[in-house]
Amino acid sequence: HISHEEKMARKKRSAPAAATSATATSSAVRRRRNASNAIVAPGGGTNTDVLNLSRNLDMSADAVQAMLHCGGAGVRTSRRSAAAAAAASGTNNASSAVMSTAWSDFMSEEGMGGATAGGSASEPATKRTKQDNDTSSNTTTSQKDSTSTATVFVKHTYELPISPKMRNPKSKSKNDSSSSYTPPGLLAQTGTLDAAVVGRLAKRPAGRGVHDLEEPTLLFPTTIFTPKIKIALIATSSSSCHSIAVDIHGTPYGWGRNECKQLGTITANASGVPTASSSNSAGSASSGSGILIADIAVPTKLEGPWNISKNVIVGAAVGKSHSILVADNGLAYAAGMNKRGECGVNSSVDEVHHFRKCFLVGGTSGGEGKKADDGAKAVQVSCGENFSVILSSQGHLYSAGSAEFGQLGNGETGEYFVTASKIAFANSTKFERRAIFVQSAADAEGGLVTDSKDSAKMIPLPDSADIAIGSISCGKNHTIAVEAPIKESPGQSASSRVFSWGCGGYGCLGHNVQADEYTPRLISALRGPLFASNTPVRAAAGAQCSMILTKNGHVYYWGKHRQGTEATMRPTLIDALANNMHVVTAFSAGSQTVFCSTKNAVTVSWGQGTHGELGYGLGKAKSSAKPQFVEKLDKCLVSDVACGYGHTLFLIRDEDEEDKNALKKMKKLETDDVAAFMAEVAGRKFAAGAGDDDGDGGGGKKRGKGKK
After folding, report:
1. Across the beta sheet with 647-652, what order do the strands follow?
2. How far apart are CA 144 and CA 81, in angstroms?
3. Edge-to-edge strands of the sheet including 555-559?
4. What is the residue-wise DSSP string for 10-46?
């Protein structure tokens, strides 16, 4: 018999042990629950999510983890690491830890090989595999053994020198047939020829005239450009209301807005026929040769120092209110607005009224006292709103102009206060070489850096000083650059990297964040096995968007070019073209428009075009959210396209009978058709400097704290 008191005493003695056991059980359950809810994959994926995907896709958990972390770029690994992962998951298939079933099928369709993606099954287990998304360059490609952390850099060489976009008319070499040259053709335009009304609602007339082109129209094919004068190069930009075309003989022509003398000093006679002046004395509102005009109605031959030295023009680019021409001797010439040094003539003068020689100096940012590069020869140029970038024959970058958003790529803006309410920046009045290329710490570690401070840190690439660029394109306040082609060695291939810097609004830099970059930064999303055999080859930038063209004719887009839509924060394939087997050969982006032309004579456009710059035709839509066929260019092979502000230029092939038949259906515009318009333009009152709409005088700008 046990008394009541004894029972109560036993309960008290057993209570702590029971409580301890219950606490231990609860803690174990909590630990298991926390483990299943731990975030282990991008986008907040937990262990539970990984296990569910593993069951649904019939893949191992390790394979699912690898697929999630690669961000759609595929997985590269060696068979040794694959075998280790397979052993850990209890399977005998060495490739199952890397990818299987659906993922391997996708990679196989993309031409990435079999299930291992790191090599064939016959490769030895100790063979090293090339890391396509590593932190090294294609000049010194990084290779790592699966069991070692040491990095070995293998030296590669570029395909140099870099060529101009058009063939040198003075070249006598029969083998001078580089694939980088744009085939010549006929000049066409859609959008208005009246540059004075673009972006200025108060000046827009009520009706439309013959100069308001609603569809692609051949410009003066017999009166200005005779059948023997084909066009080899066209140039305009997203912030530009003027354009330049260069014929096969190296003669430049300019038309459009000229309020800041961006096309040099142009005068007109009583009939409104414009003529360029090379005299430095012609700078007043009128001169002996005619009346100084602010708008040029038709393409007019440009004059400059290259004529005196008997050189020809092989490159051209235009900004908002300035222009730069590149001669065959490697010299560059600039004219127009220079308040921020965008002309690069080593002068602080506000405007350059006649084309003057640009100054290129060597060294990186802050490299004062360094000598200029011996033999630095300009071959390509691109202009933003108020900055410029020149590419030399050795693939070196030179920049001048505004530093407000880091457009110079020298690692700084040099921001300082002029007054309590006015900020200025360390702009550059001459072209200086930029030889530092960086990547984020997260990209350097393969995306494994989780600390936000470390992931935002920028690390110079190991081969930064040796990187050569093959293609450049400037948007309004940013630049995209594609690495020069790399000479492939036996058994190895290398993909050109893509860099971006400047203003990062709407994700136009491709780093999945809205932040300015002050130094050329590697776009990691354009690395990996998907680009191993489909390397980027050319770049095109719009006002706030960017694109690259790959070797196989695919176009990747990011940023934003149309109002009322969401921004694309990282490079995304334009699947409407790629999925329909379209191979793009020419592409461009403007203020709010995008154009792509294919090798099968199909041209599409989308965006917004209030002046008819989309080319859909009179009475047709002025905007399109998706790529839409430009019917007036059907069966016309477009060699090149350039999108401007309020207009679009085309270079259309005219070589065989099929080309001529396609051109017959296109409208034509001759000088007699626009005689009245030319006279009206010549009679307008000239307003010097009217092209600078910012109102900040070029020295500074009121603004809040920067984005970065």
Report:
1. 638-643, 647-652, 186-192, 212-219, 667-669
2. 12
3. 536-541, 545-550, 555-559, 568-573
4. HHHHHHHHHHHHHHHHHHHHHHHHHHHHSEEETTTEE
The pLDDT value recorded for residue 92 is: 42
Alpha carbons 164 and 437: distance in angstroms, whole number:
23
Half-sphere exposure of 114 (CA within 13 A, CB side): 11
Decide: helix, strand or coil at residue 593.
strand
> Angle, to 10 degrees, between the axis of helix 47-57 and the axis of helix 61-69?
110
CA 159: distance to chain centroid? 21
34 compared with 585, residue with greater pLDDT: 585
**Residue 705, pLDDT score:** 39
Contacts 24+ apart (CB under 8 A), 196-199: 196/257, 196/294, 196/295, 196/681, 196/684, 197/646, 198/241, 198/257, 198/611, 198/645, 198/646, 198/647, 199/241, 199/645, 199/646, 199/693
* Tokens 């085309």 -> residue: 650
In the 8-state DSSP scheme, what is residue 163? P
For position 360, what pLDDT does the model report? 94
Q: And the tokens for 3? A: 């008394």
| Cα–Cα distance measured from residue 383 to residue 182, given in angstroms and rounded to the nearest whole number | 19
* Radius of gyration, alpha carbons of the chain: 30
- Cβ-Cβ contacts under 8 Å for 206 (sequence gap 6 or more): none
pLDDT of the residue at 649: 98
DSSP-based three-state secondary structure for 208? coil
Question: What is the DSSP pairing of strand 667-669 with strand 212-219?
Answer: parallel
d(CA 104, CA 92): 17
Of 551, 603, 559, nearest to 577 by C-alpha is 603
DSSP 410: S
Inter-axis angle of helices 4-37 and 47-57, nearest 10: 60
What is d(CA 635, CA 642) in angstroms, rounded to the nearest whole number?
19
- The number of C-alpha atoms within 13 Å of 52 and in the hemisphere containing its C-beta is 7
| Token pair belonging to 28 | 């174990």
pTM as predicted: 0.76
Q: Is pLDDT at 76 greater than 50 in this prediction?
A: no
SS3 of 69-136: the string is: HCCCCCCCCCHHHHHHHHHHCCCCCCCCCCCCHHHHHHHHHCCCCCCCCCCCCCCCCCCCEECCCCCC
Q: Which two tokens stand for residue 322?
A: 């300035």
Model confidence over 607-657: pLDDT tens digits? 999 999 999 999 899 999 999 999 999 999 999 999 999 999 999 999 999
Q: Is 201 exposed, middle or buried (0-12, 13-18, 19+ CB in 10 A)?
A: exposed
Check: CB of residue 198 under 8 Å from CB of residue 693: no
Beta strands at 313-318 and 295-301: parallel, antiparallel or unpaired: unpaired
